[in-house]
Amino acid sequence: MKLTTSLVLATASLTSALTIDLNLAGLARPLLHTTSASHSTSKTQNPHAWIAASPADARSPCPMMNTLANHGYIHRDGRNITREGLAEGLVQSINFSPELAASMFDLILSMDPSATDFDLDMLNAHNVGEHDASLSRLDAYFGNNHAFNPTIFAQTTSYWTSDPVTAQMLANSKVARQIHSKAFNPTYTYPASTEQTSHTETGFPILAFGDIQNGTVARAAVEYWFANERLPSEVGWKVRQEPVTAEQMGAVTKMIADAVGLVTGKKE
């Protein structure tokens, strides 16, 4: 049974769950997209070479999911994604631990446990796999809520004031996007469940491409990935040696949660 677009994704804090809704994206450098009329690669070619999506392919508001499809770590057309396929793709591409990778699929199907696969464009439904105040997409109220938007991302990156980008900078850009959306979008919605999972998605660049212990990530890697939905090996990124664990994801999530507050000083 396929996941339906009416599915409401179960979301919770990382201490109880993980999420694949990673609405991160970006543009601060020229796009390096190329186009291809075919998804096929010869036996002599890298099976995970980056190939831009065709108009017929399914894509989502989640840059990481789109990246996996563009590199062939999941089906390049973005359809019929299974638990095994997604888990293997996350393990091979960014070295998530098998347990962490598998949990991502389980979470997206937690409201429909009988479903065995889904298509990326099913995540485009508002407040399902997509939400207001994205770092890289328009709110649904303003139009296309799933394609990368350079203007939105330029607003986001204006809060990244040095290199490397820190957890605090990522948190600042998220808060700024929420304030902007709340001010100008009359249908703005951001329930507690979205806030909880957004801490994980906001910190995702650190998990995938950065220094987890110090909570930083090279700006070039983040911007290249966001702009192209492509692994940033062209700008020096290499897959980390040790697998990313659920505990590490929890630690980065906490970094963001601790950084989004606007009140200074210790809590009484």
Description:
With 268 residues, the chain is mainly α. The chain has a single domain (63-260), classed as Chloroperoxidase-like (Chloroperoxidase, Orthogonal Bundle). It has 9 helices and 4 strands; from the N terminus they run H-E-H-H-E-H-E-H-H-H-E-H-H. It has helices at 63-70, 83-94, 98-108, 150-157, 167-184, 192-202, 204-209, 219-228, 246-259, and strands at 81-82, 117-118, 165-166, 216-217. The strands form 2 sheets. Strands 1-2 form a two-stranded antiparallel ribbon. It has a two-stranded antiparallel ribbon with strand order 3-4. Helix 2 (83-94) packs across helix 3 (98-108), helix 5 (167-184) crosses helix 9 and helix 6 (192-202) packs across helix 9 (246-259). The longest helix is centred in the middle third of the chain and has 18 residues, at 167-184. The model is unreliable at 4-37 (pLDDT under 50). GO terms for molecular function: metal ion binding; peroxidase activity. Belongs to the chloroperoxidase family.
Strand portion, in percent? under 5%
The radius of gyration over CA amounts to: 17 Å
Structural domains: how many = 1
CATH topology: Chloroperoxidase
Coarse structural class: mainly alpha
Number of helices: 9
Low-confidence stretches: 4-37
The pLDDT mean sits at 85
Known CATH architecture:
Orthogonal Bundle
Any idea of the CATH class? Mainly Alpha
